[in-house]
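**Backbone geometry record:**
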Amino acid sequence: MDEQTEDRLTQLIAQYRDVAGGLLPLLHAIQDSLGYVPVDAVPAIARGLHLSRAEVHGVISFYHDFRSEPAGAHLLQICRAEACQAMGSRALEAYAKTRLGIDYGGTTTDGAVTLEPVYCLGNCACSPSVRLDHEIHARVDAARLDELLAGLGAVTSQ
């Protein structure tokens, strides 16, 4: 971990040290700031909040929103809730995995896109839905996914 990252972690830990139930807000703040929660940060977080490393790791690994590795420049999430599955999200996820050359949790070799499942985007009437970065897209099929990815510029077929 570089010095700048360590300094940022120290600031965030100090900010949440005395907050009751501060672990989750701290982990969110770290991920918002760095894009992920570095594995090397777990001992410092545990010391700072007077928790065991196992407790910190358990929370990080339990919640799907936390990642231990940097994500790609763009985050593509495909809804896997029942309504989206009924409308073709399984075929869409298979296409996305092939198109990007990665599985869920993976990042393309160019670092452009990380692919993740999500279990409801609240857009059930317009299934299947995806979220690309912070924007939700409705009725996405393979052709529409290609358009979205082409709009990113850096993503190529693998």
